[in-house]
């Protein structure tokens, strides 16, 4: 074998078409023991290894080229999964301490609200008391006006009665003045008869109802004392009527 002549690689793969007419030698080259130990890489093995390498590179590329969104979503899911576990795994002592602090804060807020409510109620009572005092003063000024006072006793009218001369007095005051004289205390006109004024009495009673209990009791006590003398006053009134009839008959004004 000529050392300068190359070995036909197609012959080595058993695919040479030229046969003995091939320019390259169809003899296997001599090789040493070290060459026997080395693996002979044929074209097919090289191509197959190359294809495997390309496939592995493609697989790695596809793995690396996956979208990161999926990984992010998985990471968020993992975080969401771990968070409730952390809250669940919290020791009960921390929960109890947290609840106690919240309860203390609520108790403080309730106490503050109660104190504010009490102060508002106190202010409301004071305002109502002040308003009631103003109303009582207004009613007292109206009630103690000269139009609602008797000129004889200088008190509020109790059963106001109107004389023939249009002067008004208490019924009890008229009866007492008639025991002394039968003339009007103001105009000195002779008293013939008097009539009970119901409208004025109703107005006075309504005004007395708006007054404090102290004034109402005083008015009722005076009315009760004067009511005790009413039978005697009625007897005296009947005697005066009889005396007037006798006087008129004697003077010839009444025919018997």
From TrEMBL:
The keyword Metal-binding applies. Residues 2-29 form the C3H1-type domain. Residues 150-188 form the RING-type domain. A zinc finger (C3H1-type) spans 2-29. The keyword Zinc applies. Keywords: Coiled coil, Metal-binding, Zinc, Zinc-finger. Residues 96-137 form a coiled coil. One of its GO terms (molecular function) is zinc ion binding. Residues 21-94 are annotated as: Disordered. Residues 57-66, 76-90 have a biased composition (Polar residues). It comes from the Eukaryota. Pfam families: zf-C3HC4_2 (PF13923). Residues 25-39 have a biased composition (Basic and acidic residues). PANTHER family: RING FINGER PROTEIN 127 (PTHR23327), TRANSCRIPTIONAL REGULATOR OF YEAST FORM ADHERENCE 3 (PTHR23327:SF51). This is RING-type E3 ubiquitin transferase. It comes from Aphis gossypii.
